[in-house]
Design brief:
Blueprint: H1 4-7, E1 11-16, E2 22-28, E3 34-35, E4 38-39, H2 41-55, E5 63-71, E6 79-89, E7 94-102, E8 105-115, E9 156-157, E10 170-174, H3 176-187, E11 201-205, H4 217-223, H5 227-234
Helix pairs in contact: 2-4
Length: about 240
């Protein structure tokens, strides 16, 4: 199987700039990034994000801001075509549709909004532009970035066996501080805390030639612990949950 960075590599085969731009990309679903026999949903969505980002490279809106996806049918481990169509371009955002097609059937429909993200190393503005930009640690919405516990001090986690081939290509370590907060809430009196469940983990790709990319966000989001999994760790004494 190819590294994830290489597996997310649709190639441009057709482009039209008359009127609203339209681009067509093709590729083959990598057989390693599957769950059972079906391509992993986050990986498939990453293909659509990557194709859309490539189509926006020469525009003023290069960064995906919001994605809505509809999986109409299961995808397959075979060739695919992605059609990217610009619907509207404004001063701050561009709206695109990106659809994945296999054997003439549309498998995934997406609507993607592109804009401009601030650079990671850009200095903070002198005046805060949002009341939620600087949330104090005592606020219920506060999320520490980076986490309180360094990854070398966080216990490594094993991925679920359902992830098959690629479960050894991805490593994670959950922050024990966050899980401890869940257990504190479990034993506390009602009304003495903000409720809810929290989860946080360090993730990395194990391959030597891997590179992180924005198009991988759907993949990591899809393999992250879901609510039943967190509930099983807090309430079910870590009984495995699907």
């Amino acid at each position: 199987m190819a590294p994830l960075a290489q597996a997310l590599s649709p190639q441009l085969v057709e482009s039209s700039t008359s009127g609203l731009p339209k681009h067509v990309y093709r590729g083959t679903v990598d057989p390693g990034w599957v769950v059972g026999s079906v391509p992993h949903g986050g990986y498939v969505l990453g293909l659509l994000i990557m194709a859309s980002m490539k189509s926006q490279q020469q525009t003023k809106h290069k960064d995906p801001i919001h994605v809505t996806a509809h999986f109409m049918q299961p995808t397959a481990r075979e060739e695919y075509t992605i059609q990217v169509q610009v619907i509207r371009t404004g001063s701050r955002f561009s709206n695109l549709t990106a659809n994945l097609i296999q054997k003439g059937e549309t498998k995934v429909l997406t609507h993607i909004i592109f804009g401009t993200l601030i650079e990671f190393d850009e200095p903070e503005p002198a005046v805060s532009i949002s009341e939620y930009e600087h949330i104090p640690p005592t606020h219920p919405l506060f999320r520490p970035i980076p986490f309180s516990t360094h990854p070398r001090n966080s216990p490594p986690s094993k991925m679920h066996f359902k992830y098959g081939k690629f479960r050894n290509e991805v490593r994670s370590a959950h922050d024990p501080t966050i899980m401890a907060k869940n257990h504190v809430k479990l034993d506390a009196e009602p009304g003495t805390h903000d409720g809810g469940l929290e989860s946080g983990a360090w993730w990395e790709l194990a391959g030597e030639n891997e590179e992180l990319h924005l198009s991988m966000i759907p993949f990591f989001a899809d393999i992250f612990d879901n609510t039943p999994s967190i509930l099983s760790q807090v309430h079910g004494k870590e009984i495995p949950a699907m």
